[in-house]
Amino acid sequence: AYQFTAVYKLSAQTFGGICRASKARGPVQQEKQSFQEPLSWRFPEPPAEEEPHFPPNFELKPPAAADSVTAICGESSVRVEAKKDLLGIGKPVQAADVTLGGCASIWEDPEVLVFESELHSCGSQLMMSEDSFIYIFTLFYTPSPLGDSPIIRTVDFSISIQCHYQRKHDVSSGLLKPTWTPFSGTKVSDENLYFSLRLMTDDWQFPRPSAQFLLGDKMRFEASVKQFHHIPLRVTVDSCVASVAPNIDTVPRYAFLGNKGCLFDSQLTGSSSQFLPRSQDGKLQFEIEAFKFQQDNSGMYITCSLRATTADTAVDTTNKACSFSNGWREASGSHRACSCCDTNCGTSSKSDLTEAGSQLTGLCWLDAVLPPFEHTIQNACTL
Prior knowledge:
By secondary structure, this protein is mainly β. Helices cover 1% and strands 31% of the residues. It is built from 1 helix and 19 strands.
């Protein structure tokens, strides 16, 4: 059985607004109508659902990128600007719903939210590739319910922001000078670390103009790294080898510094060679008593491996500067880090981002009674 209810709404205008009286009628005789055969009428079949008709060549287009976030990687910080129309749909988001790694915006106007953070803050992650430092930030959007209702009309999402800093180096005679390679874009900027390995005057005030020495003199080396778009860095000298040719595997050779920062010369020869107490993280000074190879007066090459780590990395067995004088002493005062100098100090962990650093090798050439001092690169930027 089917039940059908129709409701009609009639307006007086339907009948033209005319009403006429009529005479009363007498009783009407009603008769029952009967059929000889059953009715053949059936409810009609529901109409078939029509296929939708789209315009010719119609395609559902995916939403376009909103292009609503820009970032500027600065010297030691990042600045992120996010449009309040974050989704590009003409509806501003709530400022409290957007954070940079959990950090709220520092400023806003009717159109833009502004975030600023140090490179190592607001949940950033530091990663390293063969030729780059990469600081990764995440901009989070977590929509809150609309008004007093339990609903939202957007979904939460995150945007990854990366600042890249190049760590390859070109080395020429004299100071190691960087080349600036700007990156075209708002989310990534590139830059070189600035390494130096120089001979210094006796008072450590100036670069030494000559690399000629008399036996008994001290060769004073200053290794340094300058940070531009980086958190503070500490430079270490992992090894130094003297040889009669640029190839450090030739014979004769003398490894006077090795094992991740242990200066062996004073222990092996009784010299006064030493690291000076460290006064700055980005600079390390050491002095070696001048020497030459027996029966060789052609001069020698000195190859040193320099490495940079973040300044807050602990001084330990793989990040140190140790000298020997009646026992091992570390230039920063963390003498326990030198406990492995007579054994094996191992290698830096590539997976530990706080200990990984940028490494280069400077080639120092000292002639006869020791002249010109040059630098070339070898195995640049390998861990």
